[in-house]
Amino acid sequence: MGTFFAFMEKKNEVELGELLLSLNYLPSAGRLNVDVIRAKQLLQTDVSQGSDPFVKIQLVHGLKLVKTKKTSFLRGTIDPFYNESFSFKVPQEELENASLVFTVFGHNMKSSNDFIGRIVIGQYSSGPSETNHWRRMLNTHRTAVEQWHSLRSRAECDRVSPASLEVT
User: Fold this and answer.
1) Are 152 and 127 in contact (CB under 8 A)?
2) Where's the C2 domain (predicted)?
């Protein structure tokens, strides 16, 4: 069964792309800091012009959407460098019930934005890699923990993470 999942991971990587994130938590300030560093090999949503990708970051507490933030969108690339930082207020006693939903979209002027991929990190993580990143952050307060993640489909995230169902 392990080989099947390894194959699925590779399949996602090829199809949807990867996202490099850095997380750190400052207990004294009650701040969860997120750096969206870059993405690579994103699924191209507009064949004629390339993708104009951006990342939407949503904080979900339990099953309630609390806050939404977005990176800028970068024109005509499937390998965007963002280097954008976001900070969310999360008191220490609420941290264990928090999830961060990262959704990559292709910016679209004419219609709704095109979904590229998603991952969820936190209480309702969308997979073992995401759970590992969250645990590493929890164990190293005040130190940024960086990790690549393979993007997943909306259907896969919705199936395994209740937090994914709470966002658009």
Assistant:
1) yes
2) 15-149
54: which 2 tokens? Answer: 């951006």
Burial group, residue 28, by CB count within 10 angstroms (0-12, 13-18, 19+): exposed
Query: Angle 6-8-11 (CA atoms, 0-180°, nearest 5)?
Result: 115
pLDDT value, residue 145: 97
Which residues are CB-contacts of 146 (< 8 A; sequence separation ≥ 6)? 20, 21, 22, 35, 37
H or E segment to which residue 5 belongs? helix 2-16
- What CA–CA distance (Å, rounded) separates 43 from 41? 6
CA distances from 84 to 46, 47, 54, 70, 153 (A): 24, 26, 11, 9, 24
In Å, what is the CA distance from 66 to each residue of 90, 120, 136? 10, 15, 23
Would you say residue 6 lies in a domain?
Answer: no
Question: pLDDT for 27-72, tens place per residue?
Answer: 999 999 999 999 999 988 766 666 799 999 999 999 999 999 999 9
Encode pLDDT of 13-25 as tens digits.
447 999 999 999 9
The structural domain count of the chain equals: 1
| 101 domain residue, yes or no | yes
Residue-number span of the structural domain to which 149 is assigned: 13-164
Other CB atoms closer than 10 Å to residue 118's CB: what's the count? Answer: 28
